[in-house]
Structure formats: structure tokens, C-alpha cells
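Marked as duplicate of an earlier ticket. Keeping the data here for the record.
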Amino acid sequence: MNKYHVFIAFMAVVLMSACAGKNNTMTVDVMVNEMPDAKFYLVNRTMNTVVDSAIVVDGTFSFTTAVDTPYIAVVVDVTNPTPGAQYAINNETLHYEFVAEPGSNLKIDLNTKQLVEGSPLNSDYAAYKTAFESYNSALMQLRDSLTALINSEQLAPEAGQEQFYARQVALRDTLMAQMKQLMTQHNNDIVGASALNTYWYMMPEEEELDSILATMSDYVLSVPAVHKRVDRRIKLQETAEGLHFKDFSVTYEDGTTVSLSDYVGRGQYVLADFWASWCGPCRRSIPLLKELYNECHDKGLEILGLATRDKIKDSQRAIEEEQMPWPQILNDQNTAAELYGVNGIPHLILFAPDGTIVLRGYPDEDFFNTVKAKLNNN
């Protein structure tokens, strides 16, 4: 190869590198009225991290940033977010959500919350958002109209509830059909991940979910919001009724260690209560748990509190205020909840004397009656 060919090959590599860099650059031009000198942020909502910031000048501002992998982004006016910080966007903040793509040039009108110029992927993501927002809007309108009829005594409360449920099911089925279509079209990108997350939120049957997950790419399943659901589902399957308990331990500041196995699998029924001092439903369920404890403790039932995502001092204060007589594992934070796939609290798990998981669910009358039946038949 002569020097000329070497030079041409070298320049080709340089140009390819430059083009690759250029193709990874996203530009977002934003229009917003009557907000001079306001500061807006570009946020990677998929990872909950701040990417960039800009000041409004003459009704516009822009972002230019590298994007390696598409993610859900949001342009938002919030108060001093910090990189990597977790935060929440509510309906009162001025924001617009879209797909950040390598090589895309987007134009957004924040006044109308419209994507003026976008991309095919952003058009489909806009369709996804419209479908979900239409579902929520229709539910709110239905709720308000039925409430007005009930308050004016034109409709009985029971009939109103039946009408709401029937219409909710129809609206949900329409939304799920739309999400299915998007998942089929986008089984390897962020739009498909968003559609899957919404579809999963609607609680499909397990068998149907299996078939859907089988069609989604590894990329979709790795998106944090989806991955969290997949991981929780695996944990639920691993700690389902009929399986043996999974142990965990917590070490306190004084060096002592307490484990679930200190209580479970030791010859008596144990009802584990996932709770927190800040959880209103948890606190409201404590009197019911105390009734169960007083009735069944002598029959071989122990209750074990598992303080979840709670400061140890707050847990101790709540235990004293509620006068809970059963043992507690404190300062566990989220270890047990993640291990057992607990997504919300309060949550109860009943362990048999040999450590087998017998029952799990929400603290209501049906659950407590089932616990009593298990003890009576023991």
C-alpha cells in the first residue's frame, strides 16, 4: 500500500469517527413564553439523572448532548436538581417527556406541550403517552360524573360502583390492546419498554405475561423500570406459597445480628408483617393484628414485625405508640422486601412451623380468617 492509499485509509477512519460522534449527538430546541431567565433541565428519566441545564433567552433554549442509547428524557422546570438525584415531576411543573435518540434533532413547544419536529420513534412514544393520558382522563371524567349523580341522589352508590367498574374494564382493555400493538412494533427499543411497563401495571394473567416477555428483547428487559418488575416477579416465584422460607440477617450498631431463621422454622406458625412507621395503612392494620395476636398467640401463632425502609428510631417510637407486643426486626430497610418480592406495604407472609410459606397477602378480614383456619386445623 503506497503513502496515498495509507493517507486515504487514515482519513476514512477519521471521517467515520467524526460521523459516529456526530450521529451520537442529540439537539433539542425548546420554545417557552413569558419565562425570561428561567432555568430548565434535561433529565434522563430512565435513570433519574440530570443531564444538562439551560437558561431561557428570548423565549427559547436548547440542549446539545451525546446519546449512546435511547432513553426517556424530560425537559423540566424544577428547583435545583442535582446530578444523580431522585426527584418527582408532578402535573404542576412545566415539562415535556420524549425519547432521547442518537443523532436526532428535536423541536419542542412547551407552551402547547407539543413535539413540533421529532422522529418516528418519538411519534410512536407520543402515541403511547396519548393513549395512557386518555385512559386516565376518561377514568377521572367517569368518576366525577358518577359522583355527581350519586350526590344528587339520581343514582344509587352500588349502581354507581358497578357502572364505574364496567366502564373501567372496557377502558383498560382498550389501553392494553394499544400497548400490545406498541410492544409488537417496538420489542427492541425504549417505546416497547414503556408500553410493557404500562401493560404490566394493568396486571395481566401470568400465562399471558410469560408469552409477552418471551417476545421482548434483552434490551427491553434490561431497562430499569422493566428489569425491576422482572426481578420482583422472579423473587415472588421463588418465595411463593408452598416453598421454604429464604433467610436474611440484619446487624445492629452494637454488633449483634438477628436473622429471620431466629423465628421462622422453629416449630410454630409465624406471621411476618412488613410495615413502616410512615405507612398509614400499616398503622391502621395494627389493631387487627393485635386482635389476631390476642386470639391466636396461645394457639401457637407468633407475629414478627419487619420494619421496611424505616429509620430505627421512628420504628421504635411507633412500636411504643401502638403497643405492639410481638418481636421486631428493625433497620432492615429493603432487604427482606426485595428478597420476598414485596412491592407495597403492609404485606403479610404466614410461615408454617417447618418454615414453609403458607400464605401471603394484604391484612384484611379474609386473610385473618384463613390464618385462623390454618391454626385450627393444625
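See parent ticket for discussion. Residues 1-21, 83-87 have pLDDT under 50 and may be disordered.
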